[in-house]
Amino acid sequence: MSDSDSPAPSIQVQDLSYRFQDGSLGLTNVNIDLPAGSRTLFIGGKTYTPPPALSLLSAPYHSRTASSLTIATRLLQTANGAGKTTLLRLLAGKRLSPNNTITIGGKDPFKEGLEGVTYLGMEWVLNSIVRSDIDIPTLLASVGGNAYPERRDELVEILDIDLRWRMHTVSDGERRRVQLAMGLLRPWRVLLLDEITVDLDLLTRSNFLAFLKRETEIRPCTIVYATHILDNLAHWPTHLVHMHLGNVRQFGEMEKFRSDTRESSENSQLGEIVLKWLKEDLEARGPRNGPRTEAKSYEALQGIGGYGLEKADR
């Protein structure tokens, strides 16, 4: 996969089920087929409501109604345990998947240790080195910045990074920009992103998404991006995957869902699609104080994002 002349890798998941250490199911009979060169959004609710939650509606603030904001905020608070993080970590080869359930470019990502697969998730965000008293050029050089000077400089410009920053004094949003530059500096063939843009401001996120889209257009690569923030995403994805309680509820090309959903005065068409899905998820989950579902939210587990608590359903 390191050969830049080879085609972009496709991603196939077939009949994948996965259990946590306590025996509860994290994923159940997951089947998806993501074409080479695709840009796929994984959609599913989160258990907290960060400030960007209002951007679920993907509409200018002045055009939103109080009722729509209330619905969006409640959905992000309650739609729980979708399974996105578990699936992304399996795709990245971070956890062992059952035999013959996952292939990337025709290979098993765990057994064959594929090159060119980049995963940026909770471990990356919590890495202690990016909070120490260290300068930006040193950090970028430590991950190959001098080997890819043009790419390094492009990422610094796109993410609006000040090379005079020191990491122990920057804001969370500025730190996230540096982390993204570090993670994306070496050219990748498959990029797996798990809620990694949550601290970015609107302009930086827009520039970052434009960069990712351009990457898939000029070189062979494939992207899977789990997010609940839909700003500037209306025309970004080629495919959508709707996950709920460890199951894939809907999957397909973006055009498939556009044809079934109208665009309202308050919402982009993508916003309407996702809002409809999350309403259905909320109804399926039932009252918060009702019986617990088997699906897990990583924030609720011990350890860094709950990682290390899963085991394969073999």
UniProtKB/TrEMBL annotation:
Residues 11-270 form the ABC transporter domain. InterPro entries: ABC_transporter-like_ATP-bd (IPR003439), P-loop_NTPase (IPR027417). GO terms for molecular function: ATP binding; ATP hydrolysis activity. Pfam families: ABC_tran. Keywords: ATP-binding, Nucleotide-binding. The keyword ATP-binding applies. It comes from the Eukaryota. This is ABC transporter domain-containing protein.
